[in-house]
Request: fold
Amino acid sequence: MNYNEKTIDVKQIFNGKIIKVELQTVELCNKNKAEREIVRHRGGVAILPVTDDNEVILVRQFRKPYDEELLEVPAGKIDHDELPETCGIRELKEETGYSASKISYLTTMYPSPGYTDEKITIFKAEGLNEGSLSLDEDEFLSVEKYKLAEAVDMVKSGDIRDAKSIIAILLLAAEINS
Reply:
């Protein structure tokens, strides 16, 4: 059976710096009509820095939607016409101060396909060289190192709750243990 939905009408509800919101009227596979609220996003990149000793470098920052500090892999939104790899290298430098001699693709994830078209491409960074942070003026974070096994335990215990970080850490652990 084909479950595709045909778009009948699109109304732009909001046009911001980071997201756009649309209200779409669609025709369902059974010919009924429905509305879909869709958040449009340019996409982002997450990059998991891994030291030669299998330590992962994470950042701790306050996230307003949850009103709490979260421990995450470095990440950021893709600038206009920027390649994901370029974004990953930039975000790694900005948020951790590190540069990497090797960047490897891990996966592309859809963080919440029920209402947004955002895609996050996840990379692993190796061959790290330490430098200085270059944070945005509204960005405040701390850089923390953890053994990979400790990060996996933090995922299991719920201390790391961010989806892109959970995926990156578990993919790295699976890669190393395979």
Notes: The chain has two domains: 6-41, 44-177.
